Every structure is written in structure tokens, then in C-alpha cells.
Amino acid sequence: MTQALTYTPDADPARAHGPYPGTFIVFEGGDGSGKTTQIKLLAEALTERGYSVLVTREPGGTDIGEKLRALVLEHGNGSIDPHTEALIFAASRAAHAHQKIQPALEAGTIVLCDRYIDSSAAYQGAGRGLGLETITDLSRWATGNLLPDITVLLDVSLAESRARAGARGHADRMEAADDTFHSALHSAFRSLAQAAPERYALINGAQPIEQVHKQVLDAALAVLS
Ligand code: TYD
């Protein structure tokens, strides 16, 4: 099914730069795009500079979220239908946003989150064909419209992403999906970033780790300044 890839939620400047003293930085990208490595390096760099940093991930991040994560990613649940899958990710995100991310932002913490609303837009909206707009709106409702100050999109080619994910030696339900699915979500991530460049740092994730890190750090420091 062909999906419109141009949907951009209305930018709300009052929220886009955060009503909270903390800063919300999200990392997005396909499987094997290097998010975990880059989040760790950024957390270390910001901690060294004296910032208080919280690293968290989706799906998961709360007790209920970790249970939902196991439910939706396990191989044994191969028959979950796309609507149920989308609602489970949104439920996990609601708990995460309300119970963990927002309180941390209120306390002045920098929150580094591995995946957020755009992952649902890309995987469920584009990959599963449920529509970017519907899926984005569902998550915006679920989170009380809690949006990142900046989203770091680590862009790697489908082939590179597949090779890296394969080297990790396991594939969860999403990673096991076919190439049409993965190419749809790669295009969706790119188009989301291109549609609102002021809210994204689009970084070539195929570069050496240190080079990617430098660009990620520059993007984070620009939001913090
Ligand atoms: P994870 O092991 O965290 O993968 P990665 O290290 O690539 O982030 O597994 C999360 C998987 O769940 C990943 O394949 C993307 C998928 N996912 C969705 O399909 N929708 C979502 O909303 C989220 C947050 C993740």
C-alpha cells in the first residue's frame, strides 16, 4: 500500500523548544543504525560536561513498558496484527512519557531516548501500512503531545543496516520483516526529517563512529545552548 510520506504534525514553537527546564533528545534510525553506541557516547560526553543525563529506550523504559516490549518483540508473537502492534507501542510510549520522560524533564535532566514517535510512524505507519498521520496522531495523544527538542536521525543504507543487524546474530519480529518493509521505513524516516529540518539532525550513520559522535555532540550542544 502506498502511504503519503509528507505528513508533518503542526509545529508548535512553544513546545518545540520545551516547556520544561530539561531537554528531550530522541535517536531514530533503522535497525543497526548505531543508535545504542551513539547514545552511550553522547551520554558520556554530556555527563563529563556536568549535565544530568537520563538514557532510556522504547519500547520499554518503565516496568509496564518492558513487559509490553517482550510481548510485541518476541518471535512467538508472530501473529500480532498491525493495529494491535501499533496500540502496544503507543501504550508503552504513554507510560514512558508520563511516568519517566516528563518527570525527568521537569527536574532539568537531559533525556536521551532510543526511539520515540517517529519509530511508530516509520514501522507501523509506513512499514505496516497504517498511515503516518494516524500513527503519529495516536502517539501524540498517548504522550500528551510531549515532543522532542531535537531528533537525531542516524541514516544508513538498507544494505548497511541489514549487515549490521545480521552481525548482531539475532532478529526480533521487526528485524525479521522483509525488505519492502525495511525500505518503506527508511524512506519514512528520511521524509519525516526532510519535512521539518529544524527539528532534526540528519546524520550519515555510515561514517566512522567518532565522526558520527562529533556531529551528534554538535547537534546536542546546539540545542542546549
Ligand atoms: P530494539 O532491540 O530496541 O532495536 P533497535 O536497537 O534497533 O532500536 O527493538 C526495537 C524494535 O521495535 C525495532 O525493530 C523497532 C521496533 N519499533 C517499532 O516497530 N515501533 C515503535 O514504535 C518502536 C519504539 C520500535
Structure annotation, total helices? 9
Mean pLDDT across the residues is: 89
Largest beta sheet: strand ordering: 2-3-1-4-5
Total number of distinct structural domains: 1
Radius of gyration: 16 Å
- Note the main sheet: 5 strands, parallel
Q: Supply the CATH class.
A: Alpha Beta
Distance between the termini: 43 Å
Structure keywords:
single chain, 225 residues, alpha/beta, Rossmann fold, five-stranded parallel sheet, 9 helices, 5 strands, 12% strand, disordered N terminus, binds thymidine-5'-diphosphate
In short:
The protein has 225 residues and is α/β, with parallel strands linked by helices.
Explain the overall architecture.
By secondary structure, the chain is of the alpha/beta class. The chain has one domain (19-224): P-loop containing nucleotide triphosphate hydrolases (Rossmann fold, 3-Layer(aba) Sandwich). 53% of the residues lie in helices and 12% in strands. The chain is built from nine helices and five strands. Helix 4 runs antiparallel to helix 5 (117-127) and helix 5 packs antiparallel against helix 6. The longest helix is centred in the middle third of the chain and has 25 residues, at 82-106. The model is unreliable at 1-9 and 11-16 (pLDDT under 50). Residues 31, 35-36, 57-59, 73, 89, 114-115, 119-120, 123-124, 172, 174-175 line the site of thymidine-5'-diphosphate.
